[in-house]
TrEMBL record, chains A, B, C, D:
The keyword Metal-binding applies. It is an enzyme of class 5 (isomerase). Belongs to the aldolase class II family. AraD/FucA subfamily. Residues 7-197 form the Class II aldolase/adducin N-terminal domain. It comes from the Bacteria. It comes from Vibrio algarum. Keywords: Metal-binding, Zinc. This is L-ribulose-5-phosphate 4-epimerase. Signal peptide: none annotated. Pfam families: Aldolase_II.
């Protein structure tokens, strides 16, 4: 019943090592089927090379296992919060990819510094506030989702226009219209994070021109997009 | 009729992932046939692994499609401007290669700091001014070419002696006597950009000796060149 | 008699080039069989590609060769000290992996800056003091172990909670419940060392929240761990 | 007559791309046969993938071609100077490997900061002075050798104890007992150059303890060496 969904989630998870976004098992991708009300996600702590389609776990929106024998990713509750709060997203990915994680450890937004960034993210990729000790102690993974959503609401950011976030002290999450698209955005986030690190070393105050940011974002998104084969 | 041209352009585009200059589809190479008045160029938004010779698009110097079913690269108008302004070049390449893009994001010239640079570029690789909001709004890709050409004229730089440019806030363009040669120069630009980043961290004021720059450039270029098998 | 032990040690040594932790022969892994009172370890100065299971050397806890024709790693005496002082460890690895060695050369602890670190190391990875000239002159490799153990005792660090150390001016050692686990920790140390370098450049005073460090360490370790398939 | 020599030189040249020390044709390795008074060296500007044993050029100590149809490396005269001045070396290699070239561009010695360096280099790897305009204009490649030799004499450095040099504004040269050993040293130089860059960023004043440097150098070199299988 969930075979096609599980296959897409497996394929998307296997893109993580291919694009150099993960060490060992440090990443997980999920996709939601909103009609069926289920999420397929990577099992916790399983190596990518050993993973088959039957290892993918299906859970409902309360996190209860619907199909599969393994435990779902320990980050499942964060994925669920994002799917609930952001109704237009279909896939979520979490990694500890090196450069994006560096921005997380520094507790800083990934600043929009060029058109590579602007092609995918409309403005800075926001960094969350720290979780409180209580938020860490109880329902930590759910609260990681809560502070992400809070940051987007507080800054009035459209999660489709900025499909990634930096969780302070932790690492990035990205999302997209499905699992594959979420991984695509995670790859982009890693690249622009690496570029931003060195750019700030060369020229600490620089920002992208707002008109250039608008132009590049709109070349690829919305009714007047003209990039690619439309 | 354009088969050989298209094959060379395909081959040159496939060098981009081989040399690590591109993520996803973020790069495009073209070559001009000046006798026939046409340019062959990568289609927009197509993955390198999926690309065949029939996907390469042939356009005339007004950007009208002459052969092929796909849309040409969204950067085609920049390529056309360069071919029109620089009559001795035969190939153009645009990438978002990491280190050169870092210099673009910092809005700085890539400084000539050693003989690796001097072997290919006679002096700093210039960074353009920002485009104005109007230049961005209307004919953006064409105007990207216009500011490149303006920078070379303003500084009186010979585009054959410095076959690359840094577009502020954006990324590099390189060119050469044909598509393959343009890609070769893009690889060099990326390498010298990476070296220059760290060199300036170690020794912020350093420049190459002008005599050493002259010597290395002339070892490889002009009537008295003695590098290679001549 | 030692065939299975030697095979595990060979396999773990071959993980070093696979994970990019070594140049040439600059690394060695050992595993102890505490019942038999022997340690299997890489031979000194032998290339990984040439190494077979019969090249692995078995020594007793005084460093005397019990099986094998080759000289054991020149670092064998350091391994022995660690096994004697840390009774719960089963494998030890030494490399000159780039980022961890940079912290060693800088004579600095690898600071705990994020959850990637906290998942494996409970607090900073300590850097030893310098050896004295006398400690260097006589029994250098043994004394390298002595200063490691001294640092853990002085700071009251549990070697199972922080399974790596930075030896000042030299390079890292890591350990684990067996040879494979030790190499796993060495890979993690290298990754968090690289992240910490750039994090400190972006934000020089940052530290991980202590509650977040506790949470992530306890997600993976101890009675209440819930990461993975338990 | 020179077949074995040429084969060794070919093999050593092919190690350069394998170890990531070269872009395109930016490197060359030679080996001397002191009895026969000849040097075998890479041809100028030939791609590594296209190179066969018959492309290797044999020259005498005046640089005259003795065997082969291609032009020898444009850096041949530098190699010859080094062989003449350093009677105990048998192989020379020149690359523009990224990190060592960064030190060259910064006109700085590669400082001895850890045992990775001390295992191979007894003290800092020296950076030459700039060549004068006249030295650049006439016999440039020979004079590159002259300033290298001058630096070793001026600082009283034994070229066997420090088998590499940084040529200011240019790039490194390394040497060894034969072509293969020279390439080995070039790989080490690149690695310690990369480590030193980041070490100095973390801790700008740090140096290796002199006793530790002595110890590690003598573990691997001289009558009392005990590293490896002796």
């Amino acid at each position: 019943m969930y075979q096609a969904l599980k296959q897409r989630v497996l394929d998307a998870n296997l893109q993580l090592p291919k694009y150099g976004l993960v060490t060992f098992t440090w990443g997980n991708v999920s996709e939601i089927d909103r009609k069926l009300g289920v999420i397929a996600i990577k099992p916790s702590g399983v190596e990518y090379v050993d993973m088959g389609v039957d290892d993918i776990v299906v859970v409902d929106l309360e996190g209860r296992r619907v199909e599969g024998n393994l435990n779902p990713s320990s980050d499942t509750d964060t994925h669920i919060e994002l799917y609930k709060a952001f109704p237009n997203i279909g896939g979520v990915v979490h990694t500890h990819s090196r450069s994006a994680t560096i921005w997380a450890q520094a507790s800083l937004d990934v600043p929009a510094l060029g058109t590579t960034h602007a092609d995918y993210f409309y403005g800075d990729v926001p960094c969350t506030r720290n979780l409180t000790p209580v938020e860490i102690e109880v329902d930590y993974e759910k609260n990681t989702g809560v502070v992400i959503i809070e940051e987007f609401h507080k800054r009035d950011i459209d999660p489709q226009a900025v499909p990634s976030v930096i969780v302070a002290g932790h690492a990035p999450f990205s999302w997209g219209k499905n699992a594959k698209d979420a991984v695509h955005n995670a790859v982009v986030l890693e690249e622009v994070s690496a570029m931003a690190l060195a750019t700030r070393t060369l020229n600490s105050g620089i920002k992208i021109q707002s008109e250039l940011s608008d132009k590049h974002y709109n070349r690829k998104h919305g009714a007047n997009a003209y990039y690619g084969q439309r």
